[in-house]
Design brief:
Blueprint lengths: L1 H46 L19 H12 L8 H21 L18 E9 L3 E8 L5 E8 L8 H11 L9 E6 L3 E7 L3 E2 H7 L6 H19 L13 E3 L5 E3 L17 H7 L3 H4 L8 H16 L10 H12 L29 H4 L9 H8 L10 H5 L36 H4 L1 E2 L5 E2 L5
Antiparallel strand pairs: 1-2, 2-3, 3-5, 4-5, 6-7, 7-8, 9-10
Helix pairs in contact: 1-3, 6-9, 9-12
């Protein structure tokens, strides 16, 4: 009987001990879960932001944790009691807690400024590499964009406080922002500060003037054709939008290392886009100025630009300027009339009404064939005819850019050239490429890529 009682008592005691142990484990888990939840709340708040600086109102220092919880934290980090949470969960609480503590201690110091990435429209987003040229109102630099690493041309226009922004600069910027064409220089960015207005252009390493200086005696006939086609293509684009360039000359026609020609310097003639020639701006500009403007006409139209095209065409073929006046407007007109003949009311209706036309001031010349003045025109099929239709003293007789593109002179070019979109280069058409100039290695313009595009190995 006693043995039975002792056995029942032992069993009861064993069940009580087991219940006690189970209750102890349950309370232990509840306590740990509560503390873990507290830490998780802090860390979740921390991880929901990019950094923990400035979060003093959320993350509390350890000194504010009650002593009993401090002991509990220490134990969970060093003890692996089988009745506690699995080891991997204890480690997670440990690492998240340390992350929060580190973030809190970091925020105690002074907040460091965030590094700003380069942006368009900011002067410090471009690095000046070298000066390319300088005019009366602007300086042009070769530069590099810190945004995308590309080379750029920086035209820095100096602003006079009493005068404000030059109207010509505003006109150039406003025009170029709306012009997107493969044969027009691309305006990347505009930066306006109190002292300067900077126009950021794509970088093109040379111009037609320098290119012709490098290859004296006239360019390769096929190269002349491709360069002239691109010039007419760009002009046709702007003329259809009722925009005149007004200052066509070789210095304002940029040439890339692949042979792409780009119209540049819209409305800001005194600031060079590339290094200037040795002649003064005034004298050089006269060489490409039409006789109607030289005689005082103010009725400008697209035919104003087409005279310059004719002069540039002759110069590329012949190797010398068509009408290189060396003195003044009178001298310039005499050189024109020597070839094309002195005008009268029959050949140029209304010429006597122009402000600066005084018949007694000019020698009377009869017109000549253009090949008499420039013999190399006769070496290229249809070149003389095209030049004669561009170099007309009477403005209304000059060929338009669109009509010139359809002239027989271009008849041997691939038909696909007339189907290109505005932003497509002519060198995307197979077998269209510049030829090496006389004495020039085939390595310069002789190679073609998969598109038939000329590849240059020349350096900037």
């Amino acid at each position: 009987m006693c043995a039975m009682i002792d056995s029942q008592s032992a069993e009861k005691i064993s069940r009580m001990k087991k219940l006690r142990r189970t209750l102890s484990e349950s309370f232990g888990r509840i306590a740990l879960k509560k503390e873990e939840s507290s830490f998780d709340e802090i860390c979740v708040t921390k991880m929901s932001t990019r950094n923990c600086q400035g979060m003093d109102s959320v993350i509390k220092p350890l000194d504010t944790i009650p002593e009993d919880k401090k002991v509990r934290v220490q134990r969970t980090q060093s003890s692996f009691d089988p009745f506690e949470k699995p080891a991997n969960q204890v480690k997670r609480v440990h690492s998240e807690n340390n992350a929060c503590i580190t973030a809190r201690s970091g925020s105690a110091g002074k907040e460091s400024p965030k590094p700003t990435s380069p942006k368009f429209g900011k002067a410090d987003s471009y690095e000046k590499l070298e000066k390319l040229g300088e005019g009366s109102y602007a300086t042009v630099y070769k530069g590099k964009s810190k945004v995308n690493g590309k080379l750029v041309a920086l035209k820095v226009i100096r602003l006079q406080e009493e005068e404000g922004t030059p109207f010509t600069a505003i006109r150039e910027a406003s025009l170029l922002k709306g012009l997107k064409h493969a044969n027009i220089v691309l305006l990347h960015d505009i930066i306006h500060t109190k002292e300067t207005l900077t126009l950021v252009f794509e970088y093109v390493h040379t111009d037609l003037c320098q290119y012709m200086d490098k290859h004296p005696g006239g360019l390769h006939p096929e190269n002349v054709k491709l360069l002239l086609f691109q010039l007419l293509r760009g002009l046709s684009y702007i003329h259809q939008r009722y925009i005149l360039h007004r200052d066509l000359k070789p210095q304002n026609l940029l040439i890339s290392d692949t042979g792409e020609l780009k119209l540049a310097d819209f409305g800001l003639a005194r600031a060079k886009s590339v290094p200037s020639h040795t002649y003064s701006n005034e004298v050089v500009t006269l060489w490409y100025r039409p006789p109607d403007v030289l005689l005082g006409s103010t009725e400008y139209s697209t035919c104003l630009d087409m005279w310059g095209v004719g002069c540039i065409f002759v110069e590329m073929i012949q190797g010398v300027a068509a009408f290189p006046g060396m003195k003044d407007i009178q001298d310039q007109l005499e050189r024109i009339f020597l070839v094309l003949g002195t005008p009268n009311e029959d050949t140029w209706p209304g010429v006597h009404s122009l402000p600066h036309f005084k018949p007694e001031h000019f020698t009377h010349y009869s017109p000549k064939s253009l090949r008499q003045a420039w013999n190399k025109l006769s070496y290229v099929a249809h070149a003389e005819d095209l030049a004669s239709k561009l170099l007309q003293c009477f403005p209304k007789n000059r060929l338009s850019a669109q009509a010139a593109l359809s002239h027989e002179y271009f008849s041997d070019l691939p038909p696909r050239l007339w189907e290109l979109t505005d932003m497509s280069s002519i060198f995307t058409v197979p077998n269209v490429r510049l030829q090496p100039e006389s004495g020039e290695s085939m390595r310069v313009f002789g190679k073609t890529n998969s598109h038939g595009k000329g590849v240059s190995n020349s350096k900037h």
